């Protein structure tokens, strides 16, 4: 029968509220951590929002969402993943009553998706912790955030129970290991944050995530609720056993989050890690029972793989999606130094299937590049982004290979399906979209939208359920 994508495969695209909505204080919205990160995740937060923070306006999706959803529908999207800005619903994060105007915005957004037959997929927390919760409580280092988060989750689950079927609890939850402020709202600088406090914060997130799964299923048993991690296939740099063990340790640090979400308990290797590092997690009564509420599916981002070695001295480091590693000498890199490894996607799909026997959903994959808007032969402004088409094609062919291997893949979402502000660098010039947005790093631009070559290519891919890829027609 050969390679094929299953009927009902959920094609679409993925974004985050903080990277495209803008309207950062309109209609009662409070500040989030993103409003004080004007230069990306590797710089300290500012005291207050500054004019050079492109995310304050984003691409003005808050006011232009109807135009953008129509373009997604033109491409044939089956699914559109976005996040709910927590501080749009609870401006400070710890209020008892939600902001009705914030709730109404997402009512309109989800209704617009459904009008075109597009299933919304909603991330509850996508690097958007309300700023008040970080400054008043030190973010997820404080147990109180479990209460605030579950109140938020219950509020939106109840409000949108008939509009949203697919939910994710946290975006790239394992990123807290490298970026505790962005991912966990923790004000304590990383270099001063003890392992005890870091893993206690992680425990709070895992309990909150499992509690959200429980609450969501009680509100609507038909909800499909997943976790989401930053996937990072980790290869040993050489066949030396020490390199293999080092790669295993790195893999464990990243995938133990999946173990807890999928199996409902901490794995043995993490218990050993806690013991050897003097970490004693504070389990409150009921935590073990809460963690037993496992997810319906596993979702993940995939951009690159890394290598690890027991002797990393003088080895070239790889840049990457929040995590680094040792550079793989056999792989090319993007303009931003992210190594390109389509076969790593097939590998990680098989790995997760073998380990967890849960349905899998690729909710982020894409190429950041410095696109140039130019007229085509018909005089229409577009982007000749064949490099992006080549990247996406190569990865989708590996998804098809994984499906042929027997992996249950629910769908595939292109990250940043419309140009948005980069999370890692907070710049516009690093573009992922299939739709070009006329906005630039200096804040200039008309915000007009233009279809890139990849827009038309992806439309054909979806329209043929991937068959054109497999038959080499594009």
TrEMBL record:
Source organism superkingdom: Bacteria
A Gene Ontology CC term for this entry?
Answer: cytosol
List of catalytic residues: 364 (nucleophile)
GO biological process terms, alphabetically, are:
carbohydrate catabolic process
What span is annotated as the signal peptide, if there is one?
none
User: InterPro entries under this entry?
Assistant: GH, GH_1_N_CS, Glyco_hydro_1, Glyco_hydro_1_AS
What are the entry keywords?
Answer: Glycosidase, Hydrolase
Pfam families in the record? Glyco_hydro_1
Entry's Gene Ontology molecular function annotations: beta-glucosidase activity
* Family (UniProt): Belongs to the glycosyl hydrolase 1 family.
- The name this protein carries in UniProt is Amygdalase
Please give the organism. Paenibacillus mellifer
């Amino acid at each position: 029968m050969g390679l094929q994508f299953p009927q009902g495969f959920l094609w679409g695209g993925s974004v985050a509220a903080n990277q495209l909505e803008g309207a950062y204080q309109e209609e009662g919205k409070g500040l989030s951590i993103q409003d004080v990160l004007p230069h990306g995740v590797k710089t300290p937060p500012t005291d207050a929002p500054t004019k050079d923070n492109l995310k304050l306006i984003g691409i003005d999706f808050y006011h232009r969402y109807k135009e953008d959803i129509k373009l997604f529908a033109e491409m044939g999207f089956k699914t559109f993943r976005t996040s709910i800005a927590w501080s749009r619903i609870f401006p400070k994060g710890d209020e008892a009553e939600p902001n009705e105007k914030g709730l109404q915005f997402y009512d309109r957004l989800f209704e617009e998706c459904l009008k075109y037959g597009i299933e919304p997929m909603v991330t509850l927390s996508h690097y958007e912790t309300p700023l008040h919760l970080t400054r008043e409580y030190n973010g997820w280092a404080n147990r109180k955030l479990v209460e605030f988060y579950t109140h938020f989750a219950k509020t939106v689950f109840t409000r949108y129970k008939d509009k949203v079927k697919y939910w994710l609890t946290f975006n790239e939850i394992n990123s807290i290991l490298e970026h505790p402020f962005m991912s966990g709202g923790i004000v304590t600088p990383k270099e001063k944050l003890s392992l005890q406090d870091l893993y206690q914060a992680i425990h709070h997130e895992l309990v909150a995530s499992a509690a959200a799964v429980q609450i969501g299923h009680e509100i609507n048993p038909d909800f499909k609720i997943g976790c989401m991690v930053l996937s990072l296939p980790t290869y040993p740099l050489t066949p030396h056993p020490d390199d293999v063990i080092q790669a295993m340790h790195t893999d464990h640090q990243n995938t133990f989050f999946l173990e807890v979400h999928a199996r409902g308990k901490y794995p043995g290797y993490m218990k050993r890690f806690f013991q050897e590092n003097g970490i004693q997690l504070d389990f409150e009564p009921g935590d073990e029972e809460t963690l037993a509420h496992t997810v319906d599916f596993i979702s993940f981002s995939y951009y690159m793989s890394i290598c690890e070695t027991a002797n990393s001295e003088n080895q070239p480091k790889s840049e990457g999606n929040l995590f680094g590693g040792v550079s793989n000498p056999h792989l090319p890199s993007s303009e931003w130094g992210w190594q390109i490894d389509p076969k790593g996607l097939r590998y990680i799909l098989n790995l997760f299937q073998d380990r967890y026997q849960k349905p899998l959903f690729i909710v982020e994959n894409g190429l950041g590049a410095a696109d140039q808007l130019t007229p085509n032969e018909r005089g229409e402004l577009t982007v000749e982004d064949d490099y992006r088409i080549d990247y996406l094609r190569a990865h989708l062919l590996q998804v098809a290979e994984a499906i042929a291997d027997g992996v249950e893949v629910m769908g595939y979402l292109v990250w940043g399906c419309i140009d948005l502000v980069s999370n890692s660098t907070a710049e516009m010039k690093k573009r992922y979209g299939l739709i070009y947005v006329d906005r630039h790093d200096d804040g200039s631009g008309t915000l007009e939208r233009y279809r890139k070559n990849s827009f038309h290519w992806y439309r054909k891919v979806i329209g043929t359920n991937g068959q054109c890829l497999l038959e080499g027609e594009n």
